Every structure is written in structure tokens, then in C-alpha cells.
Amino acid sequence: MAVAIKLPYSGCEHIDDKVVSKVKGVRSKNSELGLVVYTCLDCPVNGGFSSLDNHFKTTRHGFAVSARSVYCGRCNDLVYDPDFLLSSAKKRKLAQTSDEDDSYMTSNTSTRPCGREGVRGLFNLGETCYMNAVLQMMVHNPLLASYFLGMGHPIHLCPISKEPDKKNESDSEDDEEGEDKEQKTCVACGMTEVFSDATQADQSLPAHAVNLLFASWKNIPHMSGKQQQDAQEWFILIVDKLHEAVSQNQDSKLRCDCFFHKVFFGRLNSEVTCDKCHTTSSTEDEYSSISLDFKKQVKKKKKALPDVKTAVPNIYECLRSYTAAESLSAEQYKCRSCDGPRSASKRVRVRKLPAILCVHVKRFGMKIVGTTFVQEKYEGKIDFPLVLDMGPYTTQAKSAAVSDQYVYDLECVVVHQGENVHNGHYFAFCRQDKKWFRFDDEIVSATTTEDVLRQEAYLLFYSLRSLASA
Predict the structure, then answer these.
(1) pTM for the complete prediction?
(2) Domains of the chain with CATH codes
């Protein structure tokens, strides 16, 4: 699939230079007057937000603007464009500095990540809620914040971003050279910019992830374009691309010691034991998320509790099922020692745990309607804890006492609303300074622990407690 070349600077495709010019003029007048009204760009009509749609239907005038927002009649929504933010932002003239000033600032500047006041939403750049939900988890994780805000990936030294971006022959030679500099194809550079933008304490407007979105489109072509994507798929692919961006040993992940590998990747141990000769073969596989079979666990619980109307499984039950031994038929396994097909038992357990554990509740599948396969979603609540002990599900389960080595604290819950994986909306609940917030794109609201635990989780992100207390 070809990667879209046009950078999605705006969620509204109807904005052009003429509209931007009009907006700047009208916005300046409204700002000076302190008005909280919308002014039509094509006529002198002023009015509140509720009257905008009727005015557009009557006159077909395209845009209205207030001191802080722009309304598009064809989108029937408030829209975002970086030029509007730049025109409304207050700018200060930089003062000339002396050599003594430079010396003082150098000796008194710390590379320690800045403290953050408040929280910020992220603009939806065109069905990018799947990305925004995952990014909020990352931005509010102290370990990742220390890395990206502490020059873990210096953009000015990145060899990927320094490489010129390849253009299609159909691209115009008049394309702005400055725009190419912003269209970085390195996902680590794009992520660094998101952290820098989203953690600015003096900014009240939502942040945006334009360059990261463009980089992910370049690096993950099948997920490019303005369409809904699977948040779990994007997460596992973007962390893999972060690993590739900084790793010099991309072909051998098991031996990689890069930051992202330690943070996001674990290892699963799979053992198969022959029922006849009892020979055991063992293999290891990497994982960046553990996928739990929600539908299977609901059926299992309903069978065990037939009188219960609503069967609500919990994470521990799903993990026990995930790591329990399962039988393999002779058609499924060939024993090397017996040199032939044999029945066997297979068991998967966690060999290595990551610093940030992603638990994926499988909610999407297929069903047959007539003679056609159609997508479906498995609705329903799953109980999940604020504190998760992974010790019983590891290869050291017999000797694993409850300790911080295996204990995780809940940091983020991603929720999906909609009928299937390519339809609906994602939002996230993230914890910061022991307080919970709901992030619905650019809208941020405080919430309670009880409200978080009531959600029908799709992704659960846990942080290893031993690292938080280190």
C-alpha cells in the first residue's frame, strides 16, 4: 500500500491559505474585544456555537471563528490547524545574550526532566484516537518521560532524521523545504517531540502528534491513511519501530539491550512434553503484549455458574487459563525422540517480564452470518486489579514469593467503544500523581478510581513497582 505523502497538518481538509488569512484578521478583532462569539468569515453575522450549523445550511458560508476556535460548516465541527495556534500564541522577542549569560546558563542548566503541572489532551488529526489513547499512556509514564525529556534520543544527532526523505516523481519542486524538515520519518524523533510538546506546563491548548503520525505512516505503511486502526496493533508495532530506531542490533532482538527492549519486551517460555516418552522440548518467543481470551473465559464462567445472568471474568482467571497446560493431539505434535506423531501437553509461562506490561483483552473476532464471515466485538466487563502480581504465571512460579520483582501497578486503561475493530472510538484513563484522568482526544477530565475500575477495558498497562521505587 502506498504511503500518503501529504502531511495531515489539519483535521479539516477544507482549510486553505485564504481561510487562514481571514481567520487571523477576525480573530484579532474578537480577541481585542474579549468576545466569546463566532464570526462568519463571509458576512458580518455573529452568534453562538449552537447557531453555526443553521447559518451554514442557510447561507453555505464555510467558516466561523472565535478568539480560540474555528468552526467548519462542511465538517459541522470545530477544527484544528497549526497556523491558527501560531497566530493566536503570544510571542516574546528574544533578548541578546552575552558570553557571561551563556556561561551562566550552561553551568546552571540541568538535564533532569522538568516537573509537569497539569495534563494536556491531544488533537485528533483524523481518526487518530487509537494513537492518542496509547500516547497518553506513554506520556504519563515516569520511566518513558525520563528517557524522552532527558535527551534519551537527541533529535539533532539522529542519523535517520538527517537522511533526506524520498519524494515521489509527481511531487512538486516548489514544496517548502522547511516542511520536509518537520516531516521526520524516525518514530523516536516524533515521540520525543510529542513528549516535549505534551509536557509543557505553560500550555493550555491540546498538543498534537503530527510528526509522529507521519513517521508511523512511513514505517508502518499498512496502517497509513485517515481511517480507524486497532490500538493494540499500533502499540506493538510502534514499540518495535522505536526499538529499531535506536538499536544497532536489529536482527537479534533476544540479545538486544536497548532502552525500549528492556521497557516493552518480555519473553515467553513454551514447553511441550510427549505423553509417551515424557521428553520435553522448550522454545522462547518475544512478546510486547499478553493477549487474554475474553470470550473463552466468559463461556467457561457461564458453564461453571449457570444460574448467574452476567458472567464477569477477571484478569487472574484469564492468566491462569493462559498459562495452564493444554493437550495436543497426535496430529498436532511430532516427537523427535519417538520420531513420530504423539499426543502431548503444552504449557506457556512467562520467562521474562518487561518494565511496562501491556495486557490485551481480546474483544474482536469473526462470526458467520449466512455464508459470510463478518467482524464482531465481544462486549462485557472484565474485572482487573490496581495491583497485579505476575509471580504465579512465571517459570519461577514455585519459588516466586510476592515481591516487587513481580508486582505491577495499574497506570493506564484504554477503552474501545464501537461495533468492530475498524469502527468506533478509543479513549484512555491515565494516572498521574496518584490521580486519575480521562483523556478523550483533546478533552481531559478528572475522574475517580471507582470509575476507572468500572470500564470495559481493551488494553491495560501496568508498571513494574520495583522500578518506581528505585
Answers:
(1) 0.72
(2) 1-88 (3.30.40.10)
